[in-house]
Amino acid sequence: MVSLYLLVISLTLVWIYYLWSRRRYYALMLKVPGPKILGHTGASKRDLIPLTERFFQKYGNEYLSWVGPFPVYITREPQLIQEILNSPHCVKKSGFVYKVISNILGDGLMTSENPKWSKHRKLLNPAFKQNILFRFMTIFNTETKNFLKLMDSYVGTGEKDLLTDLLSLAFRTTTQTTIGSKVTEHEAFKTNTLMHSFEYLQDTIIKQILYPWLRNTQILKLTGLHRPISDAISFLNKTVLEVKSK
């Protein structure tokens, strides 16, 4: 019994020391306006954007929110976003977000930490030169024209939710410029099966970020979510390999 008390006291002291060592961070954090308790914790995917917009209206263009025990700084100020993205001091990635992505999609450039990330990102710079991007203009123009035709078909039909159509436009353009234009010949692309698999994994990532308990493998198996996730990953990998092998 004495050993248990000593363990509890030791853990409490360690926790207090941890909080004390970060006191300046917490003091600065509390100066930022925002919801003090739940924030985005438990929000569904449908409610995420409307909830964020309500917080922007209430607190301004930047605010501090929460996802479980993790504080999240959210901003829509263009100048501030540019400074953050260009700063060499803001390259450390959020563990609770990128760990979820790497668990589902695997390790890659997007989830890698410094110095690996910075080194490989510089190697990719030549791929984004203007003469390279011009090669994709045909894809951009074709997909944009198809999207505008779709918009024309909506005229006079009342209010429409365009989010799905915009996501489809982004997905079709992105897959052709990354995997290759031959992806349009694949049956999974024509039937939107490829896009639906990607959307499912995207939804899964969002859910695991908002609901941390879903990151546990045993809970996923009990809820029946583990198999669909595994199947979607396998299908995406299989499709990409088939397209690249042509």
From TrEMBL:
Keyword Heme: yes
Main location class: endoplasmic reticulum
Keywords assigned: Endoplasmic reticulum, Heme, Iron, Membrane, Metal-binding, Microsome, Monooxygenase, Oxidoreductase, Transmembrane, Transmembrane helix
Compartments where located: Endoplasmic reticulum membrane; Microsome membrane
Membrane spanning stretches: 6-21
Gene3D superfamilies: Cytochrome P450 (1.10.630.10)
Membrane topology recorded in Swiss-Prot or TrEMBL: Peripheral membrane protein
Family: Belongs to the cytochrome P450 family.
Protein name: Cytochrome P450
Lineage, broadest ranks: Eukaryota, Metazoa, Ecdysozoa, Arthropoda, Hexapoda
Gene transcribed to yield this protein: Dwil\GK11540
